[in-house]
Structures are given as structure tokens and as C-alpha cells.
Amino acid sequence: MAVGARLLAKKEAIVTRLAAIEELAGVDVLCSDKTGTLTQNKLTLGDPFSVNGIPADQVILNAALASRADNKDTIDLAVLGGLKNDQALKGYQVVHFQPFDPVHKRTEASVNGPDGKAFKVTKGAPQVILELSANAGQVKSAVEKAVNEFAARGFRSLGVARAEGEGHGSF
To answer: CB 3.0–4.6 Å: which of 1, 45, 97, 139 could bond 82 by disulfide?
Structure first.
């Protein structure tokens, strides 16, 4: 491992754990994303795409309601950082929060709004959110086109939906 660390040091690679050298020894192909996470160690929120004329600020607000800062999740922190006003979440009460899990590929929150009305918000993999949406048939082609355009530019897409009461949401 010392020889491997020395060879990596000559190539200006930084090794923080010697065990990493051994783990990477069996890797033939290393794939990376282009979100800036690897190059800048920072994930940021781009310009949102929305359907049915929903304002971008509303999309970000709904995504922020389905996020938690205390989880220290990079996606949640990027979404919360995308809020233009740090007081935007004031008046909203998150009654139940379901954190992200790899099986469902989304987070979900039950929220009481400032007007007292209950609603649900969810964010996650666009194809998963689209399956949950009541208006999936009308927006599927537009959403898939937007996701593909984002992917072609090296961006990761995140789907966001909101449902009033206990019904199915709209993408």
C-alpha cells in the first residue's frame, strides 16, 4: 500500500485513507457525474422547469418543504439554498416527514400551510414523482424532454409534486 500511495502522490492524487488504495485497486472503470459535486465539492440549484404555469418560486418552495436541513443531505441543502427568502418557510408546519430511501427514491412531507389547509409535497427521482402525479398523462412528454435536456447539459433532475389534502399531486 505504501508503494501505491507513493505512485499516487507522484500523480498528485490525495489519499486520505490507505484502505482506499486497496479498494480502488479492483476498479476498472470509474464513472463520475458533472454536477460540480466532484470538481467543486458543491451542489447548487439551477433554473427550475415547471409545467402548467406554476411559478419557479413555488416549485422551489414545495421542494424545500420536502427537505430537511438537519439531515445534512447535499440535495436538501442545495434546495434550501435555492430559496430566495430565508423566511419563506415561516408559517408552514411540517406534520410528518418521510426521509429519502433508495427503495421509494423520494422524500415526502405532510404540511399545514399558513392558511391552515393541509397538503403533501414530495421530491425525488423524476420518473417516480411522475408515476405519482395525477396529471402524468398530460405532462409526461414535456417532463421527459426537460429531463433529457438537463442530462445532455450534465445536470441532475429532481422531480417535485404537490397534492392538496390526501389526493394525488401534480408534477
So the answer is: 45
Q: Are 129 and 171 in contact (CB under 8 A)?
A: yes
Is 109 in a helix, a strand, or coil? strand
Alpha-carbon dihedral 85, 149, 125, 119, rounded to 10 degrees? 40
Residue 54, Cβ neighbours under 10 Å: how many?
Answer: 15
Whole-prediction pTM value? 0.71
DSSP bridge partners of 94 = 111
Pick from 163, 85, 77: nearest CA to 122: 163
Please give the DSSP secondary-structure letter assigned to residue 35. S
What SS3 state is found at 1? coil
What sign results for the dihedral spanned by CA atoms 67, 127, 136, 159? Answer: positive
Q: What is the DSSP string of 58-82?
A: HHHHHHHHT--GGGT-HHHHHHHHT
Catalytic residues: 33
